[in-house]
Amino acid sequence: MRPSPLPAPPTEAAFALPGGAVRRSLLLLGRGIRSEPRTFAIAIGASAVYGVGLVASGWALGRITDRVVVPALEGGQVPSSHIWWAGVVLFAIGLVTAVAVALRRVYAGMAAFDVQAGHRRRVTRQYLRLPMSWHRRHPAGQLLSNANADAEAAGGVFVPLPFAIGVLVMIVLASVAMLWADLVLGAIGVSVLPLVLAANVVYRRYMSPAITVVQHERAAVSDVAHESFEAAAVVKSLGTEQLEEDRFTTVTHRLRDANIAVGRVRSVFDPVIDLLPALATLAVLLVGAHRIDSGVIGTGDVITTAYLLTVMTFPVRAIGFVLGDIPRSLVGHDRISRVIDARGYLTDGTAGLPAHGGMRVEVEDVTLAVPSFDAQGERTTAELLRGVSFAVEPGQTLAVVGPTGAGKSTLVDVLARMSDPTSGSMRYDGVDARDVGARSRTDAIALVAQSTFVFEDTIRGNVALGDDVEDGGSAFTDDEVWRALRTARADGFVAALPQGLDTVVGERGASISGGQRQRLAIARALIRRPRLLILDDATSAVDPLVEQQILAGLREQVGDVTVILVAYRTATIALASSVLHLERGLVVDQGTHPELLARDLGYRHLVTAYQRGRAEREAGR
Amino acid sequence: MSAQIEQSSTLGVLGTVREGLRLSPAMRRGLGLTFVLALFATVGRLIVPFAVQRTTDAGIGGPGGVDTDLVLTLCLAAAGGLLVTSACTTWVNVRLFKAAEAGLAQLRIRAFRHVHDLSVLTQNTERRGSLVSRVTSDVDTISMFVQWGGLMLLLSVLQILGATVAMALYSWQLTIIVWLAFVPMALLAPRAQRALNTAYGIVRVRVGSMLAVISESVVGAQTIRVYGAGLRTQHRIDTAISDHRNAAVKAQTFASVAFSSGVLLSGLALGAVVVAGTMLGIAGEITVGALVAFLFLVQIFTGPVQSATEVLNELQNAVAGWRRVISIVHTPLDVDEPERPQPPGPRGPATLELEGIEFAYPGGDLVLRDINLTVPAGARVAIVGETGSGKTTLAKLLTRLMDPTRGRVRINGVDLRDLSLSDLHARVVIVPQEGFLFDGTIATNVAYGRSGASPARVEETLGELGLSDWLATMPRGVQTDVGQRGESLSAGERQLVAIARAYLADADVLVLDEATSAVDPATEARINRALDGLTSGRTSVAIAHRLSTAEAADLVVVVDAGRIVEVGTHAELATGGGRYAQMHSSWVSQGE
Q1: Which of B253, B590, B592 sits opposite A548 (nearest CB)?
Q2: Fewest beta carbons within 10 Å, which of A221, B82, B451, B480?
């Protein structure tokens, strides 16, 4: 089964629920039921059968007591077969009820898990679809919490829901029967429902804010744990385990207090929900006794009403469960809605690109501004790139050189279309980047970034990474994979791994060092013979010796390719046919390395800083 | 040696609960009073059925017609009782919530701390996603259970006991029949619980896997976009989500069938009591009134039996989560405190000695062998070697992130294993390869571990390291936000912050695990200047990737294939025609 394609339908209604509390609750329940109609129908049907079974059991027991048990014990002649039949009938009702219970629970669980799985799919599709700028604003721990705890909370109410809806049948029947027996007593009995609903309004007023805090704190705990485990090396080196424990203790205690606050509200509300039908039953007895006394009704009517009210206690509880879970589900839904309703996708065009040869890259008057804060903490915009223009001819190599904060990584983002310029344009072979199809672009361009990522997959799968391969599979032959690994100088360590190409690395696989990851990432880029290769400080964790070998082997493996590299070492820069000197988002100069050395003072200063540092140190010794 | 964290502990259900309670002492606090209050709350559940029965029997259906006064008395007494017992229920609930949450917070913190104390994080950097789930969703599972299950179980058990006593007062024969009806359940329960246990265990494991795959889509967002691997990643995520859903549905199905058997047996019990009770009545063993009352009690008995099975089923879910957390706490520490710590000696630059060291990762070949080296106090040593030569492993041994398989590391003559960990961390600090930063400001990151250091002190520190000019380029100075994982700064700048952090830590021995062989030259010059400031007056060992570091060192140690092959000054080795001379000439040809 292939997953459906990524792009969202352009006119998708907001996932967030509009309106007041009641409307939002009904929308939440309605949407859930509509998403899994068959499963919910079975669960609700089974629940109704269960309700009827419950009433039938009480009714049958009454009839059997009157017609069989009492006559038999008071000396009447009751055939023994009747006694046995009575037992069989009660057991049979139990059997039907038991089957209904099992069906209701299995299908209610299935419905709830399906709703949760649906939320998780929607949320994670967004993670794959939203641009990098969105990801950079949202901590990983929080996003994990959205896909896990919040999706679970949003679907939580659907577990008791079929039960509550199914037993509504029971409540309606019981209410009609009560009112039929006596209008006054019936009115007392029926008044339980609006009272429960009223209690719920009060409950929700206290519960919603409390639950919001809990879900927030759950995400905070997840976030601290995630960050702290990531910082393990720093923590170990400075021996700050206690500090981390304190930090985690603070958020954990906030979560604990939030959970206790929720517990308090529930502790008060749950007994109240139980109390309402119980007090109503007592009221029926009291009023009923007076009405019998004044001859308006008979004893049987009071007993029937009291019995029906007892029967109603259970379904009212079920409704209480649903009402109790709604605030938590609404909060969870709100939290995942923020992900699902996030927009700002980079939409792809449909234009194709030539299949072979180096790519011609043109950047024309590109400016990129992002929201930022100034020194006083006021909102403003910062221009990371300002009117940048240059072109790289097919098969040429361009080195981008500049100090930290010059906008090099931002430029790389634009070149690989991780983001679009605020103004100006960026063209691949004369076609605007925004008009190029996603597949054409990923086929033609490879980027090796500063920080590389390895998937929990085999070495083969990590190198051959792409949509057209299954886990562990590959659209490339093993020979091709090995050749790419060889060029990236990763063949040595891969050959030494226990299962070679089939070794699983990543989250729960074998662990590999930073330098090995980078070389794997380089092999990943090389194997697809890109027409444009972008190397953003891609060899930072690799020994200089190895870096030199990799860069030398590059053309051999890839052939005719345009290369843009962010470079620091003079030797690396020397490989480039031209150099772009970037500073504070502006192009200072462009030319060959010797040209820039000769005419660009800042450039000379920059690339000779290393030698100067060395000279200074030697002078100081 | 490096211990593996098990997926789950192998404790039985009772063992898990007992161990869970042991690890969460706060959960047991005040349990006595809670129990007494729960007894009152149980009585509350019986008030209405008894009031209905008494009122209809004596008040309305009595021999003298309707006795409204009696009805009023009964109803008022019942209402009063309900209010009191409801208050008790609320109180019990609050107490249970408080104790359970306090206990679970203890467990969460304990597991979190234990993860940090294990070396697994520094050895296997890939396992974080699923570790996070152990201190988050696994504990949440227990919390959800305790929130409703705890009280339900308590009340149900008390109600079952109470109903049994009441039933026995009417007829011991029928009471035995009721209990016999539930025998099949008692016999099948252990097997059902085991099946459920396994099923819920699988659910917890699937949650961990699902989070691991989802975290790929978050942490690997850029790579996925560049290589157009979105559909493939989505497919992996969808599979993990479906796997979790299927496991959850399966566990739910088991639980439902187990629960419905309780409903079925309730029907059986009721049927059997009607038949046997009538027979007994005909034989004159029981009166009509007693039998009717008994039938009423059967229903009071079967209700809690059903809820108790329900709670026990759900308990399996909590136990599955509990086991995963307990397995963390039970993983033995590979680097632990000495029983009798030795005094570390005076502060100041220290001598380091490595003596006959061998090291192998568990189940692997030796990655270091025959390592003997003395680093004089105050010396700057650079260790060079190719990737995979074992130099990073050596750095980990120097800081006791791991212990050697054979041989010892000594500081001022004291074996590292004989120093208390706090003394060790005060003396020896490693500046790791990737300068990881926390989401916060430059100031908080530099002051990390030195909470007393003010922003002014941080600025001063940066000044002492010659980084004032760099700080001036930061938009908000030391208050500049560094972003998640420090990603708003460049790799070189993160390194600067890490150096300043180590400087404030003020150690006697520094182990520098250099990472960035390529940062922009200006930053590199700054890093070198800062490192000079950091290492002066201290003993330092650098795992060097940079030519400049080796050149500036007092002693260069060349490691190849797990052995030390050359030791000497830069000048000696550069002209010696050996391994180092070869590396050096390649560096120079690149640098110039």
Answers
A1: B590
A2: B451
- Asked if B518 reaches chain A (Cβ–Cβ under 8 Å), the answer is yes
Q: Are A455 and B213 in contact (CB under 8 A)?
A: no
* Beta strands at B539-543 and B509-513: parallel, antiparallel or unpaired: parallel
In the DSSP assignment, the letter for residue B29 is: T
Tell whether A452 is within 8 A of chain B (Cβ). Answer: yes
Which among B68, B117, B124 has the least Cβ separation from residue A511? B124
* A619/B contact by beta carbon, under 8 A: no
**Cβ neighbourhood burial of A454 (10 Å; 0-12, 13-18, 19+):** buried
Residue burial A481-494, b: 16+ Cβ < 10 Å; e: rest: bbbbbbbbbbbebb
CA angle A79, A81, A85 (to 5 degrees): 125
**What would be the CATH architecture of the domain defined by B352-589?**
3-Layer(aba) Sandwich (3.40)
- B388 CA: distance to closest CA in chain A (Å): 8
A245 close contact with B: CB closer than 8 A: yes
CA angle B271, B272, B276 (to 5 degrees): 125
Give CA torsion, residues A232, A233, A234, A235, to 10 deg: 40
Instruction: Please answer yes or no on whether A113 and B252 come within 8 Å at the CB atom.
Output: yes
Chains A & B: contacts with CB separation below 8 Å: 564
Task: Tell me the average confidence (pLDDT) per consecutive run of 10 residues in chain A, 621 residues long.
Answer: 42 75 90 93 94 83 83 81 91 94 94 95 92 79 86 91 87 85 88 84 85 89 87 78 90 95 89 86 88 82 78 75 85 91 84 88 92 66 90 92 80 89 92 90 86 80 72 70 89 85 72 78 88 82 69 74 83 84 91 91 77 57 46
Beta bridge partners of B560: B563
B268 and A94: CB-CB below 8 Å? yes
Tokens of A563: 């290369």
Could you read off the pLDDT of B135-165 as tens digits, one per residue? Answer: 888 888 888 887 777 778 878 888 898 889 9
Instruction: Considering only the beta carbons, identify the residue of B66, B231, B241 that sits closest to A6.
Output: B231
Residues paired with A388 in a beta bridge = A366
Which residues of chain A does B434 touch, with a Cβ-Cβ cutoff of 8 Å?
Answer: 233, 514
The answer to whether A296 faces chain B, any CB pair under 8 Å, is: no
When CB atoms are compared, the residue of B263, B434, B505 closest to A101 is: B263
Contacting residues of A for B210, CB less than 8 Å apart: 120, 148
Respond yes or no on whether ipTM tops 0.85. Answer: no
In B, minimum Cα distance to A159 occurs at B252
Provide the pLDDT for residue A507. Answer: 57
Chain A residue numbers touching B587 (CB-CB < 8 A): 544-545
For residue B208, how far is the Cα from the chain centroid? 12
Strand order in the sheet with A379-392: A379-392, A361-373, A423-428, A431-432
Residue spans in chain B of domains classed CATH 1.20.1560.10: 13-329
pLDDT tens digit string along B338-350?
A: 888 888 778 888 8
Q: How far is B407 from B392, CA to CA, in rounded Å?
A: 18
Domain with CATH 3.40.50.300 in chain B: 352-589
Bridge pairing between strands A361-373 and A504-505: unpaired
- Closest CB to B260: pick one of A98, A270, A545: A98
Alpha helices, H only, B171-229: 172-181, 183-219, 221-226
Q: Is A351 on the interface with B (CB under 8 A)?
A: no
Tokens 């919530």 — which residue? B97
Q: CA dihedral in degrees (A93, A98, A99, A103; nearest 10)?
A: 140
**Cross-chain CB nearest to B60 (options A268, A289, A441):** A289
Residues of A in Cβ contact (< 8 Å) with B51 = 281-282, 285
